[in-house]
Structure prediction request, 129 residues.
Amino acid sequence: MTGKRTSERWLFAMLAASAVVLSACSGAVDPEKLPGVYRDADGGQIELSADGTFSATGVTTGEGADPVDFSGSWDYEDPGTSSDFVYLGVEDGGLGKIGGIQLYVDDQDTLYFQSDPDGPVTQELNKTS
Prediction:
């Protein structure tokens, strides 16, 4: 029984180490290259400005939610243990609440909303300029 537990622990340790190595090998995002306009096929748009502000038009942040417009400030976050994201600090109340929302970074040219980490992507936006 002890040999089986040792094998399971070794396997878990190897899988965890592999995940860390693979995440470190993924394409690094340069936050200075994030500013620009991102759009989806349905007309949703987010503009990240170099001065740290953003505007969102026709954006769907949650599954089944209606598109909304909002603006505020943004900051790139690289937690190292999970997906990189852009934190959108909502200042105009467009979401009906004060606070922020995470806009995940797939790669240098693709951002997406995913309200439930285990759920589907609710909106993907691609850089146009």
Observations:
- The helical segments are 2-25.
